[in-house]
Design brief:
Helix content: 25-40%
Radius of gyration: 17 Å
CATH topology: Creatine Amidinohydrolase
CATH superfamily: Creatinase/methionine aminopeptidase superfamily
Number of domains: 1
Strand order of the largest sheet: 8-7-9-14-15
Order of helices and strands: HHEEEEEHHEEEEEEEEEE
CATH class: Alpha Beta
CATH architecture: Alpha-Beta Complex
Number of helices: 4
Number of strands: 15
Length: about 260
């Protein structure tokens, strides 16, 4: 069931999203060679705590999971697509890596969700293109998320950008509603057909998140129960914004 947000709730999420975006920006600056994922996790937790907010992912147990997620932020490196755990297997960032930072923040009881992929030092041209295509596909999806359109229209816009690049969208991984919970209805696939799916209406808050792989679309889940990697070991990038649908257009909450 889709739960629409009131104008007041959207204002709360706008402030939460502003704080959220600032934290992501600060963590991105720390992604340098020699830095550990544990340090990034600790800094994320500190920044959230100092603002009086909560880490939405810490202790969250999604449907089908064997255990709650053990960290404040998901950090996924190179062939890791999403849900990398930063504080269990210590990883040191290296020159040339690309790093996805996926964060949920709860402000005054309402959740925003956003992700960015950043380079560590100097990266190769293919990785640069991957990051740019993924970012571009997210904004194409946001542009399609207009009141009166349908959820399928978002997937059409996202996939059009990715298909012309020669890259692939990670299969079975989708966006979703957000706000009262980390994952809410409707689910928002990154592929779709024009005019299909739920109608987009004012009050919806959606987390749009294309995950783009250099190689195959196929994925594999690792033994920790959370980390998802590309099946062929190719690199992946991930961008995400939470957006609110208004009477006329939409606004990006996590910009």
């Amino acid at each position: 069931m889709i739960k629409l947000k009131t104008a007041k709730e959207i204002e709360i999420m706008k402030e939460g999203g502003r704080r959220h975006a600032k934290i992501l920006q600060e963590i991105a600056k720390l992604c340098k060679p020699g830095v550990s994922t544990m340090f990034l996790e600790e800094e994320t937790a500190r920044m959230i705590r100092e603002r009086g907010d909560k880490a939405s992912f810490l202790g969250y147990k999604p449907a089908g999971a064997d255990r709650p997620f053990p960290a404040s932020i998901c950090i996924s490196i190179n062939d890791e697509i999403v849900h990398g755990i930063p504080n269990e297997n210590l990883t040191i960032l290296k020159e040339g890596d690309i790093v996805s930072l996926d964060l949920g923040v709860t402000h005054e009881g309402l959740i925003t969700d956003a992700a960015i992929t950043v380079p560590v030092g100097v990266i190769d041209d293919e990785s640069k293109k991957l990051i740019e295509v993924t970012r571009e596909s997210l904004y194409a999806g946001i542009e399609a998320a207009q009141p009166g359109n349908r959820i399928g229209d978002i997937g059409v816009a996202v996939s059009a950008v990715v298909e012309k690049s020669g890259f692939s969208l990670a299969e079975d991984l989708v966006g979703h509603g957000v706000g009262y919970k980390v994952h809410e209805d409707p689910y928002v696939p990154n592929v779709g057909r024009v005019g299909t799916g739920e109608q987009i209406v004012p009050g919806m808050v959606l987390a749009l998140e294309p995950m783009v792989n250099v190689g195959t679309a196929k994925i594999k889940v690792m033994g920790d129960g959370y980390t998802i990697k590309t099946k062929d070991g190719s690199r992946s990038a991930h961008f995400e914004h939470s957006i609110a649908i208004l009477e006329k257009g939409n606004i990006i909450l996590t910009l």
